[in-house]
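User: Can you help me understand a structure? I only have the sequence.
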Amino acid sequence: MKIVVYGAGGIGCYVGGRLAASGTAVTFVGRQRMADELGAHGLHLTDYLGADLRVSDVDFETTPDAATGADLVLVTVKSAATEGAAAELAAVLKPGAVVVSFQNGVRNGELLRLRLTEQIVVAGMVPFNVLNRGAGVFHQGTEGALDVQRDAALAPYVEAFQWAGLPLTQHDDILPVQWAKLLLNLNNPINALSNVPLRDELSQRAYRRCLAAAQAETLGILEIAGIEPAQLLAVPMHRFPAILRLPDFLFRRLASKMLAIDPLARTSMWEDLEAGRPTEIDYLNGEVVRLAESLGRSAPVNERLVELIRAAETDRRAWSGAELLRELQR
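Assistant: Let's start by predicting it. Here is the structure, written out as tokens:
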């Protein structure tokens, strides 16, 4: 079977790399910069549990034609690039090919289906964080497997993911899972604005109160929309804001697992700002604002975080927890 990772950045290189390290043939498609990096260094994959894997001979291509004849395509492009990727894939994929969206946000599967009408499109979600350390090194800093919409077309590939250490958890309805992940990803702009590692940020109550405000606002909008987010962690999502607001000493005691993060882990949005790339803010907090407007409501906390990240894309600064909290309380 021919497996292609389309849009091989941090998530794509890590997921595809784990498959390749376990013996599955994988073709990566991405930018020339990444092709040069992996050509020079290969792939080196590590995780917070101590995994240490290497792939020395990486099949990396830079044109859509590399997906011709693919049986399974893992789409890992940034959300803003989904429509373009769909158009490129529509021109080369064979009918019946399986396409899995492993992207942030909640609408990428729908966007892919609009163009890939002869293929089987499956919505998925990557719950864990991957840090690109450079020189071909990609590190999984937080826990989680892979979540996908249940589909019989995935059956031939389940064993390969299992062997790779990334088992597929299949769901009858993926939307509540996607919204639960988005609720967690509301921390992405806060971490990016803080300019500190995830564990340091979440250890400070002021930053956590910023996240609590964004999550509480979102949960209210989801309730109006009739969407119940799935429970991804030990704590139901509707309890997260209250836990985040706890004093530091209580938070460390009651939510120690949330702090069991690799000390170097950061969010992809921080990486985008560091690299001077556009972020996915419109597909995270912006998705909350969009849903609120469709319901005749507003989401001022999430809207302000969108504005702050857009400003940071051109004029970077580090916000202390107290400064950011005051800004969101205005």
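Now, to help you interpret it: DSSP finds 15 helices and twelve strands in the chain. The mean pLDDT is 94. Let me know which part you'd like to focus on.
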